[in-house]
Design goal:
Low-confidence stretches: 398-405
Number of strands: 20
Strand order of the largest sheet: 2-8-5-6
CATH architecture of the largest domain: Alpha-Beta Complex
Oligomer: single chain
Number of domains: 2
Radius of gyration: 25 Å
CATH class of the largest domain: Alpha Beta
Largest sheet: 4 strands, antiparallel
CATH topology of the largest domain: Adenine-n6-DNA-methyltransferase TaqI, Chain A, domain 2
Number of helices: 10
Length: 405
């Protein structure tokens, strides 16, 4: 229940927004200063415009998404950044702004955008600084755990890649000392191994679909995964979720995601990105749209091998080079089927699986933990920000209760 420690004010009494700064890509210099666009970090530069910590939201492009930036940064002119926090807690401000649905405050012109002067006039209710810090501490505890799990996922994936490369690029697999090397179309390979085409390994190579006219504003249904979420193992942006109706999904003959599916971004600016979904992550029931390929091996034992083969740097480049249409980038099924793949004896694949499976299992356990942490945080967020949950009597060090070893 809200207490007298809350006050009704204008947003401009809490913070002052300022428009970001132009920085064309041709003028960016190599550095470590994050460049923040309306959709998040957009590269790095050698100079900052704003001292951290800071809060940024999209002015044009992606409207209303809020970013907290710990270090000094350069906000682009498609953003608004908080120039003055007026003695309010920056981390609280970032959470607070995320609950205001700023995207709905667009000026509705020919090019939708946010006007800082209009935003300053929004009526809001905010707590005193002590309550702000407690709320920010509680919510930050969830975000800290999420970030820690993300780092662990990155480390595990890197470990899996190094092991894979040791066996199948450097050919230092168990018993390699006793195996003769022979010539092949790619390079010298172990005797008894062969170079094939990806198509010979697959039982299925398929894309999905969406309703005529697109998915529209459907707010629930069956998740339809697009290229924006083909971003690596154990990673998924639930804020970009789109849906098809159950009726449409039930009529789909292709594009329904199954355990261990390898997914490949097939057209657009980021051709060659890939992921693999396992153990009901990100969903127990979901499908893909027409911008994504699903690859399934005839023998599921080969799925891990297939994913890490396609994720080798030179194979990613091969996939990108399949695209021959500069006007409308994209690759087709025959392109993918034609890619070379090194096939070791099945016994070697079974042996590498004994190493890769525990690593992948841990990756997806952590991914699902993060999914649950986000859900809990997002349930708490509006209740804390609105004062529905009273934290006035809570110790500021409550965040320690959430820490994991």
């Amino acid at each position: 229940m809200r207490t007298s420690e809350w006050k009704s004010v204008k947003l401009g009494d809490v913070i002052t927004f300022q428009r970001g700064f132009d920085l064309p890509k041709g003028k960016r210099e190599k550095g470590t200063i994050p460049i923040i666009s309306s959709s998040g970090t957009d590269g790095f530069h050698n100079e900052s415009k704003v001292k951290g910590p800071g809060v940024v939201t999209g002015r044009y492009g992606t409207l209303g998404k809020v970013f907290f930036v710990e270090e000094d940064f350069w906000p682009l002119n498609t953003t608004l950044y908080v120039r003055d926090f007026k003695e309010n807690d920056p981390k609280f401000v970032s959470y607070f702004l995320s609950t205001l649905n700023l995207a709905n405050q667009n000026t509705a012109g020919a090019v939708p955008g946010l006007n800082r002067n209009a935003l300053h006039l929004i009526n809001v209710e905010v707590p005193v600084i002590g309550i702000q810090k407690k709320i920010a501490s509680i919510l930050s505890s969830y975000d800290d755990l999420i970030e820690n799990n993300k780092r662990r996922i990155e480390i595990l994936e890197h470990m899996a890649k190094l092991i894979y490369e040791e066996w199948f690029v450097k050919f230092r697999f168990p018993g390699h000392e006793n195996v003769k090397m022979i010539s092949s179309e790619l390079r010298e390979i172990p005797e008894g191994w062969k170079i094939c085409r990806v198509g010979s390994l697959l039982s299925s190579l398929e894309s999905g679909s969406r309703p005529k006219g697109g998915v529209g504003d459907l707010g629930e249904g069956i998740p339809s995964i697009g290229a924006e979420n083909i971003i690596g193992l154990g990673i998924y942006d639930f804020s970009k979720e789109k849906y098809v109706s159950s009726e449409f999904f039930n009529k789909m003959k292709k594009g329904i995601v199954k355990h261990k599916d390898v997914l490949l971004y097939k057209d657009g600016a980021k051709i060659g990105r890939k992921t693999m979904f396992c153990d009901n992550f990100p969903h127990g029931k979901c499908c893909i749209n027409e911008h994504v390929f699903i690859l399934r091996s005839k023998d599921q034992k080969c799925q891990n091998y297939l994913y890490f083969w396609l994720d080798l740097d030179f194979m990613t480049e091969n996939i990108k080079n399949l695209n021959s249409n500069a006007a409308q980038p994209g690759i087709n099924q025959e392109d993918v089927k034609s890619l070379p793949i090194l096939i070791p004896p099945i016994e070697i694949i079974e042996e590498i699986n004994k190493i890769l499976e525990p690593i992948l299992n841990q990756i997806f356990i952590l991914a699902k933990k993060n999914q649950n942490l986000r859900k809990t945080r997002d349930l708490l967020l509006p209740k804390l920000i609105s004062g529905e949950i009273d934290v006035s009597d809570l110790d500021i060090h409550i965040r320690n209760e959430f820490q994991e070893s």
